[in-house]
Amino acid sequence: MRERKILIFYVWLSCIISSTAQQLPFYSHYFFKPLLYNPAFAGDKGEAEIFALHRNQFSGFAGAPVFNLICVDANIKGSNNNYGFIVANQKKGLLNNTNILAAYAYNIKFNENLLLKPGFSIGILSQGFNFQNALAENLTDPNLFTNQQQKTMLDANAGIAVQAYAFRLGLSFPQLAARKIAYQNNMNSRSYYTQARHAALSLQYEKELTTHLVFQPFILTRYNKGAPLQYDIGTFFNWNKQVNTGIFYRSNYAFGMNFTYTYRDNITVGYNFDYLVGPIYAFTGGAHEFFLAFRLKPLKAKATNENISDSETPKAPINGKSGSETGKNNTSLLPEKNGNALKDIHVLENKCQDFCNLHRKNISGGYYVVAKSAYYKEQAKSEVKKLIKKGFKNASIIYYKPSKFYYVYLYKTSGLQDALKLTGEIKDLTIKNIWIQTLIN
Length: 441
Fold this sequence. Notes:
Blueprint: H1 2-14, E1 49-56, E2 66-77, E3 81-92, E4 95-106, E5 108-111, E6 114-130, E7 148-164, E8 167-173, E9 180-184, E10 190-194, E11 199-205, E12 207-208, E13 213-223, E14 230-239, E15 243-250, E16 254-263, E17 267-276, E18 287-295, E19 299-300, H2 323-326, E20 330-333, E21 346-351, E22 355-356, E23 366-374, H3 377-389, E24 396-400, E25 405-413, H4 416-429, E26 435-440
Parallel strand pairs: 2-19, 21-26
Antiparallel strand pairs: 1-2, 1-18, 2-3, 3-4, 4-6, 5-6, 6-7, 7-8, 8-11, 9-10, 11-13, 12-13, 13-14, 14-15, 15-16, 16-17, 17-18, 20-21, 22-24, 23-25, 23-26, 24-25
């Protein structure tokens, strides 16, 4: 009886050779790593990240799908370029697929609240069918595929991502190449595996309920011609950007429960359990998915006067016209005074009209002691929370319109000498890469 069930299961899996059913893997942590379905989300966290995932679907069932994946992606800080690299393997029944993809996405930032990112990925799909493991009553039947066959074909995906205020929208077209692979039996009869073009649409909203609690409802739909529309809908709750819990429903398949924990802002572990529904649930133990992510320091592009990174400040004074006359940052390099207290402190000057706050309101002139800069609003907010934890209770953000960067500042003073004193003290004790942004009316 058990062998009969296994045979039925293998037959069901092997039907993908000629069917138009959904072919995309089920990932339950895709909102943590949306690059899994959409190449436009490469580098979406603004930092380099290594992400590894393991998923055991239909656990306890022989020949059940098993997925393993590792990817690396990053935004080149100070530029609009994002890169990603994915290696994924899935085994299910007789099938063994390995994908190797390189992804690229480009930032088109209209203002501090609207970011558009087109992206694509291209690579290869290496597919193998181990027909020797097939169960059949008559293994000598010449119509059977009795050997192991391995094929390789081009794989390509495209997508677009939009971040608008608290919304994050993604539209992708996986398996865009729609390639076909022929498999041949002992009678020279052929069967074909055809990639089906898919469309995946995702939408996520973020709402701060309290200072520490964030509410994140989401929906994802997958579609390909000839198959029913499949959707996920659910919500996450994030506590202090450290603990994340969520629940969701996957249409006609499962209810999912999700938990992630982030340690020191750069190591995240996650677990998801799918409780299956429908006819198959009685034969399986559900689905288990684990991931581990390491966030690295951002990759840096060459700094310019309008693009000051948190670790690269101008190496020499800029002489000539002032920032108010040129419309660009005017940088002066102060001489060393009183030991190290005022060594190499940079002062940049701009008009107030070049800056605004996060609500796009005008800000007043003064001297802002800046500790960090970030291209992404969320990264800047994260830096503010870190600084507040370190004791900088006045840490906040201003937005520099020409370069579209967020500046995280520690203090604002009305006089240069006060700003220099604070900067010198902080530079010696805690934050080394710090400068003064002067805003004049």
